[in-house]
Structure formats: C-alpha cells, structure tokens
Amino acid sequence: MALKCPDIQITVVDRSTERIAQWNSDKLPIYEPGLDEVVRQCRNRNLFFSTDIEKAIQEAELIFISVNTPTKTYGNGRGRAADLKYVEGCARMIAEMSQNSKIVVEKSTVPVRAAESIMHILKANHKPGVKYDILSNPEFLAEGTAVEDLLKPDRVLIGGEQTPEGQAAIEKLCWVYEHWIPKKNIITTNTWSSELSKLAANAFLAQRISSINSLSAVCEATGADVSEVARAVGLDSRIGPKFLQASVGFGGSCFQKDILNLVYICEGLNLPEVAAYWQQVIDMNDYQKTRFSQKIIECLFNTVTDKRISILGFAFKKNTGDTRETPAITVCRTLLDEGAQLNIYDPKVEPEQIIADLTHPKVTESPEHVKRAVQIFADPYDAVRGTHALVVCTEWDEFVSLNYERIYASMMKPAYIFDGRKILPHERLQQIGFHVQTIGKRLLQQQPHDPTTVRTFPSHLTNGHGAASDIASPVHPDTDRDSGNNAHHRRLAFDAAAGWWQCFLRMDCTGTSTKPPATTTTTGEVDRMSRPDRRSTPPPAPPPTPHRFQIGCRIVRTVRTSVQSDAILGGVTSTVESLLGQRPRSRTRSTPGGSTSGDDNITIPPEDRNITPFGWGLLIIPATTFGLGCWQVYRKQWKEGLISELERKIHMSPVPIPDDLADLNDMEYETVTVRGQFLHDRELHLGPRACIQHGDSHTIGGLFSQKEASIGFLVITPFKLEGRDDKILINRGWVPKRCLDPETRREGQVTGTVELQCVVRLPEKRPQFTPKQRGAIFMYRDVEKMAAIGGTEPYYLDATVSSTVPLGPVGGQTRVTLRNEHLSYIMTWFSLSGFTTWLWFRQIVRGKSF
Predict the structure, then answer these.
(1) pLDDT (tens digit, 9 = 90+) per residue, 706-765?
(2) Distances from the Cα of 430 to the Cαs of 137, 240, 425, 445, 448, in angstroms?
(3) Which terminus of the chain has a lower count of CB atoms within 10 Å, N or C?
(4) 479 shares a domain with 564
(5) What residues form the annotated binding site for NAD(+)?
(6) Over the chain, what is the mean pLDDT?
(7) Catalytic: which of 90, 219, 254, 393?
(8) Known catalytic residue: 254?
(9) pTM here?
C-alpha cells in the first residue's frame, strides 16, 4: 500500500521495541521474497515503524487491526476457538486514544460477527463527537508469495454495514485500493459475509490438500501415481490444478487455526454434522503426517534407535522462515520418540527457532533429550554426512539441485531418501543407489545399473551347462531383453529360484540302481548342439545315475530359454546333486518324432528301490503337521475353558468393591459396585479408540469391538470412594476427538455422589511399536503411570453405563468376544498331514510320477 500510494502516510506500530527496531534495520524480522526491496523504497518516505501507538491512533483516519488471533489454549473452546484478546485490546486502545472519528478495519482472521464485538467495545467507550465505522477486509495472501499476491491479487474483499455511513466507509477504502487494483477486482459485501469468506477460503484450500493426500494413500496401496491422478483431475476446468500437490501435509499459521475456528463456530450453532465434516480435513492432515513418519521407521527396519537421520527443511513451506504448524515438527517428534538422532538443515529458519519448536511442552516432555539428540547445520552436505536416511520436509528449490552422488558417498549404506514433497528426481536417485520413498507413488527399488559391468557366477553354479567347470560364466545385462533397467536382476533371480526347485523336484530319494543306457544322440541333444554361440561345446553325455525323484519339471523347463537360465539351472542342479552324493543322470523323453529325451519316462525296478536318509527325512513334514494338529486340539480345550470362565465372571451378580483393593487383582472381568465422587480436574485420556455401541460384536475376535469408524478417546477419571480415603481410576467411556476438552462437555460432567457398576480391568503391557505416553494422553492401559498422574491407587475399572447427557461419555466399552476357530485349524493341520503322508508314500515308496 505504501509502495502504490506514495501520497498516503502509513505508520506501523507495535508494543515490541525489539521488533520495531528490526523493521527499521536492514535485517527484517521475517523472510519474504521481494519484501526487503519494498521496505527499502518506502521506509522513511511514507512508511514508518514506531512504538508510539497513541500518536499513530490520533493521527490516523483508517486504522487496520492486524494482530494475531491464535487458537485458545485454555478455557471454553480450548484447542479450537480463536483467542480474540489481542483484537479486543486493540479496540480498547482505539476507543481510549481516539480524538476524532475513525474507520476501523479488521485485517486479522476473526470469527463471524467479531466486528460486532469490536463495535460494542467502541460504542461503550466512545467520546463525544467520535464515531466509528467497522469494515472487514481479510487478506488472501500466501507466505512465500505475499508481495506478489498483494501487488496482483485475485480479488480484494471489503465488508461493511448496509447503511449510508457504512457504504461511505467502504468507498474510502476502495479508493485506496483503486490506486493499483482494477475496480472490477474489488468485491463489497456485508460484514458477516466478508468474515466468513476468509475462513471458507482457507478451509477450501486445506480441503483440497487433504483430499489429494487421502488419495495418495490409495495410490501407494494400488500402484497408481498421485501426480498423474492430480493432473488428470486438475485438467477439469471445474476443478483446476492448484493445491493438488500431494505432500507430507499442510502447515502454517492459518489453515489449521481457521478450520478449527470454523468447527467451533459450527458446534456453537448446533451444526454437528458440518463441524464433523470440516474436522475431517484436520484429521486427514494429521494422518498424513503420522503416516509419513511411520513409513520412515518401517523402511529403516522398523527401528531408528541411535540412527542418525537428516531433515532437509523445517519451514512449513518454501520461501518463508515460518515454522508454525510445520509438518517437520511431527516428523521430528516421532523420530525422536523412537530414539533417533537428527541432523536438521533449513536455509531460512534460525537454529534457535528449531530448538524452541522441538522443545515446546506440546512436543516433548524432555527438552534436554531433544537438545542432545538434535544438531542444526548451516550446510546441507554436512547435515547428511554419516546419516542413515535423508528426509525432505520442505520444498526448497536448492534441494533439487544438490549433488546427490556426493551425498550418497557420504551416507551410511543402504542409504534412504524420503521425499515428503515430491520434488526430487526419483529414478536418477535410484540409479545412484538410493532407496527412495515418496508420497503417493509406489517406487520399485532398483540397483545401480552400469551397462559396462559384467556379472559372473561361480563355476559351481554353471558347471555342466555350457560353461567350463573351472571358470565363471559371464552374464551381460544387455543380453536380457526384459523391460526396465533392472529386468535382468528379476530374470536371474527367478531362474535361480527355479533351478533350486528343479533340483528338489528331480532328486530321487530311493537308493535304486540301474544299468547305464546306451549312448545315443537324441533329438533334444541335436537341437541343443545346433544353437548358435550358446555353448562353446556340447556337454559330454553324463553318466547314469541311480538317484531320481520324478515329480515332473515341465513348468521349470519353460523358463530355460537363455544361456543364463540354462547355466544357472544346470549349475544349481549339479551342485545340489553333488552335495547329496548323486551324479547327474541322462534324461530320456519320448518326442513326437519318436526320439526320446529324459525328463518324463524313467523306470526304476521295484526290487532296486531303497529309501535313502533324505527320503526318510521328508517324513518330518507330515509328522510336524500332525503334531500341530494335536496342539490345536489342546488349544481348543483351553480356549473353551477360558471363554467359559470369562462368561461366568461377566454374568456374576455385582459385588461391593472389596475393602482391600489388592483383591481386585484376582477379580478381572468381574463386576463390582462403587460409590463416591469423580475428581474431574485430574481427568486422563486413553486412545485413540473407536466407539463400541450397544449390541456391537467383533467378528474377528478380541476383547474390543471397533466397528464404528469414528475415532475418539476414553475418559479416565479419578474416583474417590465414599467413606474411604482410597481413590481409583474409572473409565467413564468414549468421547469423540472433538470433545476431548472437558469444557466442550461441561454438561456431561457428573457431580456429587454417584453409584456405579464397573468391570475390573488389569494393567496391560506396552504393545510393541506403541509410542510413549505424552502428558495426560495414554496409548495403552498403563495403570501405574495413570495412577501416578491422577493421584490414585493403581486400580482401574470400566463403567458399564453411558452418560444420559449429550456429548457425555459412552460407557460399556468392554466386550468379551474371544474367537474360537481352533476346530478349523485342527482340520487344516490333520488334512495336511494326511496329504503329505500320501504324497511321500506315492513318490518315495512307490516311485510313481505325476
């Protein structure tokens, strides 16, 4: 505005002396492309920065309120509602210091009808002769392109009252913008529409990101490419291509804050379905960040303990130093919780800001551990040196042009890259040697490919099939015509596996002996000798063998179409035969032309058939399956007894809670009666969990039904027993995630003395890979820690009744529905035992072929 309106004096005021000093210096407090040049041109000409708020208010005709409106961290609406304390403070200062009429403009993102609240404050504190007009003029710029967005905005929105005074105020603000913006791009509405439009715009943009991110999970599961899907969808003129870039998730100061504010407004207007719809945008974003973080851990062999991982990018997007709600915080927090060591590099974020974000109480309870485990680097090559993996969390342009050959050489092997922004050349990285994972695309890992490389196999894997017994057989990658750079690897691996199966299927375990057949040249041998350049010399006729296990190898023979496959199959066959003390045999098989070659028709005299130790050893298979069947018989009896015992406990009449609470350790799943008061100020939460409604069942077994898709938490509340000093923990039931804050269900808080029936539950051990407990939210039933935080005895009960108040906890979250499918297991194992016994008798004893 100062750049385009040189005849208008603009003064920016703030209480922070340090911040104003930065604006008056060459080093601005924020980074934004092009902002330095604009400030240099206008500063001390018609743009001034000052801490003299009173003077600025008295001299101004238009006053823009551009203060932060963070999400409330306490009280009613905590975690969702916008905190308007700074807006209210500005309104009170304006009312106190104004000496003449003012036009007050809301520039901050505020809830609907916030202008009405500002007007109430101004009118309640007005001075004689001073009038106020309130306008809403929300900003639609994006960090990283803010200057460009201000110079060439898609639209300017101004909302005001539909009165002559209100319209006159709108015209004055329009006159300012018309200095550089076409009048057709300036939209005027009423105040409430303008306020809601800002929230709606951010909600729609975030919704598009969450929508494409949700499809990225589908693409990874199916083999589709989310970039191709986004391009196909974005070419539809009704949709458009913007904000369809899948990533690790959105961040920044606006999207999440404004959507949560919108959710809170909808709940306050008694529109729970609308609130739930927009809440899913946030839930999907949280899921995407968590899913990406877990993928890193899973790919690194499911553990990152003491592994050093480099994080490239910490800002929530490129071309900004803003780290508010950045996905990098979630990624770093997850890795730190799993014991990883982090090297972090970002070209614009200050090291102090990174440490402050990672040591925030919402992120960790051990700031000293974070400081020890995190190192900040000023150079990306230093940040990746000696690390196991590289994670891209911000789409800085410089990350695309890094020397990844140099990076690969300095990293631990195998070296992994996790591209959370889909900006890197994945195929080139795979050719270098990286294992690459990204968002929305399943990448087939390739080995580094050099067409000049000659790969060899040891002589014992090629002996007897076209290669001399004392040399290795060269296999050139370019002789394999399979598609893809790594096709020859797949072919060779398949041929090797087929060779081992061929050896197993053709090994006879009967100690027979036959006379050597007459030496003949079969049609098959003539064909093999006539193949040009495939073998230097035809192999000599192998001596007869007394060891044959005829099951048939027609399937295996179909893959023997190249020098590589023949060499591998034959070499592996010879190797296994030599290990078993067997000699290669000649094969005779009848062909349509009347000649024979031998893979099908071999006759072994019954009187010469003796079972070898290897043949007897194959009886382990039917014996093992028979033993497993017997074990399942025992398991079936045990499970039936367990179910019977649990049913007995569940249907027992309720008994008073014992005087000695230690007796509860022997009463799991029994129902007890308790009387006392809830201590709501020490409430804990267990989750996330799905809600179990009355009548739900668990078709696949287990103790908990999770049929309903909605996710929430169990409310664990300390309970003081009446007439006793003892306090215990009671699971009051399930509440949706949006009602985790007790202030949202104040009406559902039970007060006074109550009597409950509860099911006794024992502690559970921490499941593998379950994150550690943070604050008052637990991932599993860690009764000892719950009791320590809640100030109770370590005993835990599940309430069997639900709250009768809307949004109150849904009780009765314990269901005993243990499955008993051991009969099917018994039938399966005994059937396998019988079949393998018959197969052994047919092939080993009788010597019949298929």
Answers:
(1) 334 467 889 999 999 998 889 999 998 888 887 877 777 765 567 788 888 899 999 988
(2) 50, 32, 9, 7, 7
(3) C
(4) yes
(5) 14, 19, 67-71, 108-109, 143, 254-257, 324
(6) 80
(7) 254
(8) yes
(9) 0.55
